[in-house]
């Protein structure tokens, strides 16, 4: 169920492969014990055009979407695990951040629920 969408400057995937970056996010999410492995989805969007504080500094921002029901401490640990993990493999990237949003169980629907 959790979806992690990674936005980053294009140069970031020259420093580490997209597969390596996505696997790092996957592994960090798994390490929290909050999710079932088969349900974790990770995608990456490298940008060639961006304005990052009126600069072209490299960046990574992860948008995490998870099913409601986790408390603030769990979401905080998830955020810290992912940013720490990305910082370990890409210490030269000056901006690494994440935000977590909840899916509402009442309004979430997918094909398997038909």
From TrEMBL:
One of its GO terms (molecular function) is 5-carboxymethyl-2-hydroxymuconate delta-isomerase activity. It comes from the Bacteria. InterPro entries: 5-COMe_2-OHmuconate_Isoase, Tautomerase/MIF_sf. Gene3D superfamilies: Macrophage Migration Inhibitory Factor (3.30.429.10). The keyword Isomerase applies. Keywords: Isomerase. This is 5-carboxymethyl-2-hydroxymuconate isomerase. It comes from Flavobacterium chilense.
């Amino acid at each position: 169920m959790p979806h992690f969408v990674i936005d980053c400057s294009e140069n970031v995937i020259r420093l580490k492969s997209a597969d390596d970056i996505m696997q790092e996010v996957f592994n960090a999410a798994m390490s929290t014990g909050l999710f079932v492995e088969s349900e974790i989805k990770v995608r990456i969007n490298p940008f060639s055009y961006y304005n990052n504080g009126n600069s072209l500094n490299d960046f990574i921002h992860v948008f995490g979407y998870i099913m409601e029901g986790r408390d603030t401490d769990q979401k905080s640990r998830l955020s810290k695990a992912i940013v720490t993990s990305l910082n370990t493999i890409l210490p030269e990237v000056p901006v690494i951040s994440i935000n977590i949003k909840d899916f509402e169980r009442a309004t979430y629907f997918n094909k398997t629920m038909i």
